[in-house]
Design a protein that fits this description.
By secondary structure, the protein is mainly beta. It is 6% helix and 52% strand. The two termini are 23 Å apart.
């Protein structure tokens, strides 16, 4: 596991909005997080930490989610569409009363691969609660003069909103990706004219919905050319 990205500041955050209702709700701040652009290497997410502070006695379950991002990272980026992955639950009662980084762990199929140089939004929110209000809630740590290349994103009324110049405090961790290779083969007679063979192979490759090619091998056997492609 390695650190993929982070943003933190010395001391306490200067802005701490309250998460005091289930997501979604007809008012803002039921989900908070950060937009960012991933690095140049494919990684899978393993966990994310957000700075949280428990106030009173909130009773509920928190999760972190990964969303695709729309807008410009650093100013207008915010989540779009359905979430791509969700962490294991965290009991709000276990959060620090003085403020600390709380880890959200992604398990099994939720450890999705994060594509290189791609914009994502990472947020946390309550998925269930029996006690959650203005006196029993979770504060989120935010820097209102942030220097991270991303920006804070949060649930609005309605939809998602972005906060330019604000950054949510976080640590994002990942590991080497899970790659499921696909194999496809094409067999063509070896007496085909090359003017026909080349477009045929090109069409074959275009139909595979290839993200990345691992290898292409050709064999000449018993009057046929066999093209084998290993790809993801």
């Amino acid at each position: 596991m390695s650190l993929l990205d982070s943003y933190t500041i010395p001391g306490l955050p200067d802005t701490m909005p309250k998460i005091l209702d289930l997501f979604p709700a007809p008012h803002p701040y039921t989900a908070m997080g950060q937009s960012l652009t991933t690095g140049s290497t494919l990684k899978k997410i393993t966990s994310i930490k957000f700075w949280l502070r428990k106030v009173g006695l909130p009773d509920g379950l928190l999760v972190a989610r990964v969303y695709a991002s729309t807008g410009s990272v650093g100013s207008t980026a915010k989540p779009t569409g359905n979430y791509l992955a969700q962490s294991d639950t965290v009991d709000a009662s276990s959060c620090s009363t003085s403020g600390a980084f709380q880890e959200f762990t992604f398990s099994g199929a939720e450890q999705i691969n994060l594509s290189p140089l791609t914009d994502y939004c990472f947020v946390f929110l309550f998925i269930s609660a029996s006690v959650l209000d203005g006196y029993n809630c979770i504060w989120s740590g935010i820097d209102k003069e942030g220097s991270h290349v991303g920006n804070t994103c949060y649930s609005g009324d309605p939809g998602w909103l972005a906060a330019s110049n604000y950054d949510t405090l976080f640590y994002l961790y990942g590991d080497d990706p899970t790659i499921n290779f696909e194999v496809a083969t094409l067999e063509v007679p070896d007496n085909l004219d090359t003017s026909v063979l080349a477009p045929l192979i090109e069409s074959f490759l275009n139909d595979l919905s290839i993200t990345s090619v691992y290898s292409i091998k050709t064999n000449h056997l018993h009057g046929f050319f066999k093209v084998m492609v290993v790809y993801i």
